[in-house]
Design a protein that fits this description.
Strand order of the largest sheet: 3-2-1-4-7-6-5
Strand content: 5-15%
Shape: elongated
Helix content: 40-55%
Structural class: alpha/beta
Radius of gyration: 30 Å
Number of helices: 26
Number of strands: 18
C-alpha cells in the first residue's frame, strides 16, 4: 500500500508573536495565507475565509458589524488585504427578507453590492452568504483533499459521523448560493456543539471565536480525516499497479514528443501553453489498473472541474510499444474527446446557456509517463495540473474506503456553464498580443537579447532564454521571474555551435511550455582584423557562432514548428555589416551575410507551412551589448582614431538621423516581426541603424 500524502502531519504555523501585532483584518489575512500555502488544505483560488469585525461606519461614526470575506476570484494563499470584500452584516441579514426561493439564486448575487461597506470595490463572491449566516466570528471554507475524499464517497454522511461523531454536521451536495448559506447557518445555530460542516462533494466549513482558534480547528478537522484515511485505506491504491513507469529521462522524452503535437492540434483557434507533471501521485494514478474507470467518472469538487473540465483524456500509450502508435492515434483521440464534449453540451444545455466553449481536453493522462495540461497561459496550465493532483488524491481516498462518486453530468454542466461563471469570464481582460506564444531567444542574457525578452513578456508571451554565460543567464532569468512571474520564463545554458546541446535546449523549451512559436537567433560575437592577419581560427570562430550556430538553432526550431502545424516566426538578429562591407572585419561581415541569406532560404521553405523568417539589422548598439565589452570596442575605437568613450558619438554622427541605437530599438523591430502585425511579411529585412546609405536594401 502507498500511504496517502495527507496522512502526514499538518504543521501548525501560527506565530503568536507575529499575530499579536495584527488587528482583526490583519489576523484574517494571516490565517488565510497560512491555510492557502498548503495545497493539502486547499487548492489555488479555492475556498474562502472570513471574519466579522466591529468597525466605525464612515457616515454615522457608529460601530457596525462588518463581514470581511475573500472576494470573487481571489486566492487565500497569496491575497492581500485588498482581496477581501467588506459588507455590512446587518444589510446582508436583511437580504433574507428579499429571498424568493432557490429559483432566484442568481438574483441575490446582484444585491450583494448594496451591502458593501466603505465603498470597497472588491466584488463579493457567491459564497458570501455561507460565511455571513454562520453565527460565529471566524469561518474557514477549504477544499482539503482528505475531507473531500470523504465528501465524495457514496456513503459520505455515514463516514462523517464515523470519523467526527457529533462535532461535525453534513449537508448533501448543493450548488453554492443563498439557499445553501441559509441551510448552513441554520445547521450551525441549531447545533451549537458543531465545530463545522462537511459539504457533500465539495469541501469543509469550520469556525471559531478567534482567528487562531479557527485556524487550529481547521487543521485538526483535516488531520482527523487524513489520519482516518491512512488507517482505513489499506488496499492497493487504484486497484494496484498495471505497469511500471518509465524512467525520468524516458518520461520527459515521451512528453517532449507528444506535447508539440497535441499543442498544435488544439491551438487552431487559441494558442495553448503546456505543462508536464510526473509527480509520484500522478504516476501512481496513470499506472494503475483503475485509471480508465476512475478518470471517466470525472471530478467531484466544483473547483476541480472548472479548471480541468469534467474529465481528462487518457491517451492510449504502452511503454513497451513506444510512442509511435500513440502519435498515430492522436488525431482520432483528440477528435473523439471533442465530439464527446460537444455531445455532453447538447445533452445538458439550457435555453439560456452560454455558447459551447473550447471542446478540447485540458488534462491528458499518459500511462507510464505522467500528465500533460494545456491552457491559455502557463500559470493556468500549471494550476490545472495541480487541481487534477488534488482530484487524484480525492479519488485515492474515496475509492480506498468506499465508492468514489463524481458530480452528476447535469450538475457539472450547470456549474461549468453557470451564467454567473460566464459573466466572470466575460469580465476577464482581453488577451495580450502574444498571449499563448512561446519565444526562444539565443543570446538571451545579453543587452539586445534581454531587451527582446522583456518586450515579449510585456505582450504576454512565455520566454526561454538561451545563453552560454550561465551566471548572466541565471541573473537575467531571476530578474524577469521577479518582475513577470516564474511561470513565464525559463533559462537554458547552450553553446549554439554544439548540435546536441542545441537540440537539448529546444527539448527543454518544449517540456517547459509545450512548443515554440517564435525563434530569435541573436547569440553573437564580433571581431576585427585585416584580411592578411585574419587567422583560420578567427575565421572559423565567426562562422561557427554566427553562421553554423544560426543554422543549428533555426533547423531545430523549424522542425518543431513544422511538427506543430500552427506556423511560427523566425527572426535573425544580423547586422548592418551583412549588407555593407566593412574593411578589417571580413570574417564577421561574411558570417553576417550568411545569416541574412539563410533567413531568405528559411522564408522560402517555411512559407507553405505558415512559418515566416525575417531579419533585423542593428548597427552600433553599444549600450548593454556583450560584444562591445572586449576587444571589439577597442578595435573599433582605434580604427576610428578616437577613445572608447568617444565611440558612441562617432557612430551617432555618422548615421543619417544622428541618433544612437539602443537594445530596446532592436527589440521593437523584433517584436513587430514576431507579432501578427507583420503576418504578411517574410523574407524581409528591417535595418535599425539610424540610417546608413550603404546598408539600404536593394
Amino acid at each position: 500500500m502507498t500511504a496517502s500524502p495527507s496522512a502526514t502531519q499538518l504543521p501548525n504555523l501560527w506565530d503568536d508573536k507575529h499575530a499579536e501585532k495584527l488587528d482583526e483584518p490583519g489576523l484574517l489575512l494571516y490565517r488565510s495565507n497560512l491555510l492557502g500555502a498548503d495545497k493539502r488544505i486547499t487548492n489555488f483560488g479555492g475556498g474562502n475565509t472570513s471574519a466579522k469585525v466591529i468597525m466605525q461606519d464612515p457616515l454615522t461614526g457608529e460601530d457596525a458589524q462588518v463581514l470581511w470575506v475573500k472576494g470573487s476570484g481571489g486566492d487565500i494563499g497569496s491575497m492581500k488585504l485588498d482581496g477581501f470584500a467588506t459588507l455590512y452584516l446587518q444589510k446582508l441579514e436583511h437580504l433574507k427578507t428579499l429571498y424568493r426561493g432557490i429559483a432566484h439564486e442568481d438574483a441575490m448575487v446582484d444585491l450583494l453590492p448594496h451591502c458593501t461597506f466603505n465603498l470597497n470595490g472588491r466584488a463579493a463572491s457567491i459564497d458570501t452568504p455561507l460565511h455571513g449566516f454562520v453565527p460565529y466570528k471566524h469561518v474557514d471554507h477549504v477544499h482539503a483533499d482528505a475531507v473531500i475524499a470523504i465528501a465524495a464517497s457514496a456513503n459520505a454522511e455515514k463516514l462523517v459521523k464515523e470519523i467526527y461523531g457529533d462535532e461535525m454536521g453534513f449537508l448533501p451536495w448543493q450548488r453554492p448560493g443563498f439557499d445553501l448559506g441559509l441551510k448552513l447557518g441554520e445547521m450551525a445555530s441549531k447545533n451549537p456543539h458543531y465545530v463545522g460542516v462537511v459539504l457533500g462533494g465539495h469541501g469543509l466549513f469550520t469556525w471559531g471565536d478567534t482567528a487562531k482558534a479557527c485556524y487550529e480547528q481547521t487543521l485538526r478537522i483535516i488531520q482527523k480525516a487524513a489520519d482516518w484515511l491512512a488507517k482505513n485505506n489499506t488496499a492497493p491504491a487504484f486497484g494496484g499497479a498495471a505497469l511500471t513507469p518509465l524512467g525520468q529521462t524516458e518520461r520527459q522524452h515521451v512528453a517532449r514528443q507528444l506535447m508539440p503535437l497535441i499543442r498544435g492540434r488544439i491551438s487552431k483557434h487559441e494558442r495553448k501553453i503546456g505543462h508536464f507533471t510526473d509527480t509520484p501521485e500522478v504516476l501512481e494514478f496513470v499506472n494503475s489498473k483503475r485509471l480508465s474507470e476512475l478518470a471517466q467518472l470525472g471530478t467531484s469538487c466544483p473547483d476541480h472541474f472548472l479548471r480541468t473540465k469534467i474529465r481528462p483524456l487518457v491517451l492510449d500509450f504502452d511503454p513497451a510499444k513506444g510512442v509511435e502508435p500513440t502519435i498515430a492515434g492522436l488525431d482520432a483521440a483528440i477528435e473523439a474527446y471533442a465530439a464527446d464534449y460537444a455531445a455532453y453540451y447538447e445533452r445538458c444545455k439550457h435555453p439560456n446557456s452560454p455558447a459551447m466553449r473550447d471542446p478540447n481536453a485540458v488534462i491528458y493522462l499518459i500511462p507510464g509517463v505522467g500528465m500533460l495540461s494545456f491552457a491559455k497561459d502557463k500559470a493556468t496550465a500549471r494550476i490545472a495540473g495541480e487541481f487534477y493532483v488534488n482530484a487524484i488524491n480525492v479519488m485515492r481516498g474515496a475509492a480506498g474506503v468506499d465508492t468514489y462518486v463524481g458530480l452528476s453530468e447535469q450538475e457539472a454542466f450547470n456549474i461549468e456553464y453557470w451564467l454567473l461563471e460566464e459573466a466572470k469570464l466575460q469580465r476577464m481582460p482581453k488577451p495580450k498580443n502574444l498571449a499563448g506564444r512561446v519565444a526562444f531567444v539565443t543570446g538571451g542574457a545579453g543587452g539586445i537579447g534581454s531587451a527582446i525578452i522583456e518586450r515579449y513578456l510585456r505582450e504576454g508571451a512565455c520566454a526561454v532564454l538561451a545563453d552560454i554565460d550561465v551566471k548572466a543567464l541565471d541573473d537575467t532569468v531571476a530578474v524577469f521571474a521577479k518582475k513577470y512571474g516564474s511561470d513565464v520564463v525559463r533559462g537554458v545554458a547552450v553553446d549554439v555551435t554544439n548540435e546536441a546541446a542545441v537540440a537539448a535546449s529546444m527539448d527543454a523549451a518544449v517540456v517547459a511550455f509545450g512548443g515554440v512559436d517564435i525563434l530569435v537567433s541573436n547569440a553573437g560575437i564580433a571581431s576585427a582584423s585585416p584580411i592578411e592577419d585574419t587567422s583560420l581560427a578567427l575565421w572559423q570562430k565567426n562562422i561557427d557562432i554566427l553562421a553554423t550556430g544560426y543554422f543549428l538553432v533555426a533547423r531545430e526550431g523549424f522542425r518543431l514548428m513544422k511538427a506543430q502545424k500552427i506556423g511560427g516566426t523566425i527572426v535573425f538578429i544580423a547586422s548592418k555589416n551583412g549588407l555593407a562591407a566593412s574593411a578589417g572585419a571580413s570574417a564577421y561581415c561574411a558570417a553576417k551575410a550568411a545569416e541574412i541569406h539563410l533567413a531568405r532560404c528559411l522564408a522560402l521553405e517555411g512559407a507553405p507551412l505558415g512559418i515566416r523568417a525575417n531579419v533585423v539589422n542593428p548597427d552600433a548598439v553599444l549600450r548593454g551589448s556583450k560584444i562591445w565589452q572586449g576587444e571589439w570596442k577597442q578595435q573599433r575605437a582605434a580604427s576610428n582614431k578616437v577613445s572608447e568613450e568617444e565611440l558612441d558619438e562617432v557612430y551617432r554622427q555618422r548615421s543619417l538621423l544622428k541618433l544612437s541605437v539602443y537594445p530596446e530599438d532592436i527589440a521593437e523591430a523584433t517584436y513587430f516581426l514576431s507579432s501578427d502585425m507583420s503576418s504578411k511579411s517574410t523574407g524581409n529585412i528591417i535595418n535599425v541603424d539610424a540610417g546608413n546609405v550603404q546598408s539600404f536594401t536593394r
